[in-house]
Specification:
The protein is an alpha/beta fold. The protein is built from 16 helices and 16 strands. α13 crosses α14. The structure holds N-(iminomethyl)-L-glutamic acid and fe (iii) ion.
């Protein structure tokens, strides 16, 4: 079989190339190729340009031509840089209690919250967890999300965290989207642990971290820094150990109270996520660093609280990614495009800022340099929406769906 394919012409091809990683972006900066085409070579992008210019090259390569005969806007496959899609059970009761006026922390303290999901997840068989991840990831794929970060964190013991991370690895082999695993054993202090938070974290870092390395189960370590979860002081030796062992650090930071983003900057985290409570001080701190600020509008929508100050972060010069935080508690919706579009409306973001946040800036939040742009040598992950004008995508607030999705050069939807 010939490994080259020429795909196009797309009415508009948004390559997302040549734009800065940090700071505000205008729509005039958006790189658009009118009547664009892509030549793929196996699972990679071989060439990008005007469809008519690529035709001769495609003939010389003996490429198969896949002609698009309707108006489509093509852009890189979306990247969801923060999810918790490996879980058992439901937290519909929590949701109802919250809407009746109880706070997230009150519900957690009275037996609901993360611990409820830990209990449900521990009861789930590995097979059931794998099925849950696959179903959610495939739903995401149909909405154009070709790379999905997935956190553990509903196991909260060495054995149960391993069950989850193994389930993520098994699901990853069985689906088209790429799953990027993250160890979130520091999600909260397990209620059944007989010892201090420091002792729990020390056990995780000495016992679980080496297994993650040996079995290639995760290269990223996350922690929830918050009142009721972990403090800057308790997490310090844990992050130090993780860094020494070569893990990337990411932080659930400033969700309800501040402090987490300072820890993220101190430990050179790849991203600080949430930031709904960040003030001018934290915004400046992040803007002066290389930490990607990841907004999670799905959690704001799920909890009924304010959005991450994405406008102020971008204006201060920070890099902003946007992710779904898909989880059973605070963000049950799991629709990245709706959430990104809504964040854009509330935070007054340009189309380019929103689309960057779910493509190349989201790739940076995961430390992935091979995706998020349509560029030679990058993975052939791209999606096409049935419209002639890219502005229609966010205007429809997530209800305009991609009709074609390519993952590693293979048409997986359409
Ligand atoms: O990102 N903030 C902490 N962790 C998750 C919520 C998890 C849960 O409520 O189950 C979050 O919002
Ligand atoms: Fe989260």
């Amino acid at each position: 079989m010939n490994q080259y394919s020429l795909i196009g012409p797309f009415k508009q091809l948004l390559t997302m190339t040549g734009m800065p990683i940090k700071g505000a972006l205008q729509d005039s900066q958006l790189p658009i190729i009118e009547n664009g085409g892509i030549i793929t070579k196996g699972n990679e992008i071989y060439a990008v340009g005007h469809f008519s210019d690529l035709k001769k090259e495609a003939r010389d390569l003996n490429a198969k031509t896949i002609t698009i005969d309707s108006d489509l806007v093509c852009l890189p496959g979306f990247i969801d840089a923060h999810t918790h899609i490996c879980f058992g059970g439901s937290r519909a009761n929590d949701y109802a209690l919250r809407n009746a006026g109880k706070t997230y922390l009150e519900i957690a303290q009275s037996g609901g919250g993360i611990w409820d999901t830990v209990t449900q997840t521990r009861k789930s068989s590995a097979e059931k967890l794998v099925t849950g991840i696959k179903d959610r990831a495939n739903r995401h794929l149909h909405q154009g999300v070709t790379t999905i970060e997935v956190k553990s964190g509903y196991g909260l013991s060495v054995e149960e965290e391993l069950k989850i991370l193994n389930a993520i690895a098994t699901a990853n082999k069985a689906i088209a989207a790429d799953l990027i695993p993250t160890c979130l054993a520091a999600h909260m202090m397990p209620n059944d642990y007989k010892g201090t938070p420091e002792e729990y974290l020390s056990e995780i870092s000495t016992t679980l971290f080496p297994i993650l390395k040996e079995e290639n189960l995760a290269t990223r370590i996350d922690a929830f820094l918050e009142e009721g979860a972990y403090s800057a002081i308790s997490i310090a030796p844990y992050f130090k150990k993780a860094k020494e062992m070569g893990f990337d650090i990411t932080v659930h930071a400033d969700q309800f109270s501040t402090g987490g983003s300072a820890v993220a900057v101190e430990y050179g985290a790849i991203s600080a996520d949430h930031l709904e409570a960040s003030t001018a001080t934290e915004i400046q701190l992040l803007a002066n660093s290389n930490v990607i600020a990841t907004a999670l509008p799905g959690a704001s929508m799920g909890l009924g609280c304010n959005y991450t100050p994405a406008r102020r972060l971008l204006d201060a010069g920070a890099s902003v990614a946007i992710a779904s935080d898909w989880n059973p508690g605070s963000a049950p919706m799991g629709n990245l495009l709706i959430q990104a579009a809504v964040l854009g409306t509330f935070e007054k973001l340009s189309n380019t800022e929103v689309l960057s946040g779910i493509t190349y800036r989201a790739a940076a939040a995961l430390g992935l340099e091979d995706r998020g742009k349509i560029e030679t040598g990058f993975l052939a992950d791209f999606i096409a929406f049935p419209t002639h004008n890219y502005k229609e995508i966010l205007y429809h607030q997530g209800m305009l769906q991609p009709t074609m999705v390519w993952k590693k050069g293979r048409l997986v939807v359409g």
